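In this section we walk through a basic example: taking a raw amino acid sequence and producing a predicted 3D structure, encoded as discrete structure tokens. The instruction is simple. Fold the sequence below.
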Amino acid sequence: MLFLRNPTLLRLFLAQALFWSCAMVGVTLTSLVGLQLAPRNSLATLPLALMVLGYLAATQPLSSFMQRRGRRAGLVLGAGAGILGGLLSAAGVWLADFWLLCLGALPIGVYQASAMYYRFAALEAVDDAHKGRATAWVIGGGLFAALLAPSLTLWARDALERPFVGAYLLIAALAALAIPLLAGLRQGALPPANGGALAAMRELLARPVIRAAMITTAIGQGLMVLVMNATPLAMSFCGLPLEAGAEVIRWHMVGMFLPAFVAGPLVDRLGSRRVALIGIGLLTASACIALSGEQQLQFLISSLLLGMGWNLMLVAGTTLLGQGHSPAERGQAQGLMELGNGMVAAMASFASGALISGLGWSPVNLAMLGLLTLAVITLIGGARRTQPA
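The resulting token sequence is shown next.
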């Protein structure tokens, strides 16, 4: 296997598994803890919103920092923020201090922002013929988290006398385990700095290949977040039990990461655009199955395909981005992609509850089809007008 022969990919694979374990613990429990500690029920999801804010605020500065200091320093810094966030959140729960819990959410968001660069670090560790495999293998580390994190969450929730404190200490511990993995990464040669960040970004966005890559990942990310967040609400509105919703989300998480082990070879053989189109096809099938009925089986198959389509679009968009920029533009290009992904995900996260409550399940899935059409047009148009970096 490629990642077993390459120590950098193996370290990034394990670090990805640790991060997604932290993320699943946080996402599963934080709104419940917020509901208990918030002075008003309307503030229950504020810690989750602040995680998104921390992610958005750190994305571009982290990319610029790694352009100057290297991947190792930036990724270790991000894991350190995860430790800090876990400890602050644990203290907030222990002291029953909602605002301290909110404060801890911000550095956890910084940890998330740094982890999104693991797949870019994988691109730089292999030759051109294996970039798709490298990206996919590192993303695939999340499969271990999907299988193990639910059990870890339940154990950590009641591990200490005060409920939920152990869960946030677990986040700090898992982030701490990532430190030696990331500190052992090879530094490699730093690319030359590219001055004039705003001008560089405008130049990048003028390239069809960059726009195609960004729109591919942003639409995949936005639709995944929108529909994933709306699914448990839709199932509850249909009268399905909580256990059914948990089973559907579990298979969705498997769908998010399992295809990574075939997505990489597909990108290397078929090319990024063709694999992105396959991902769009899977998301289209997900929407069509969701529109066909509102039983548990339809929700489960639709969610599984949703995760699979997201995976293919993320792997394809990431490798496509690398075809459109020079080493000196790496920081701006990657930061721009992550900023776009984060903004779209944030809007989808905030909008999902309102959309499913105000419009219903079917309109949400119909909207998917329109956005996927936009992605197809962008990919085909970018292929016809590709400019080399």
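Looking at the output, two observations stand out. The mean pLDDT is 82. The CA atoms of residues 252 and 274 lie 23 Å apart. In the next section we compare this with other chains.
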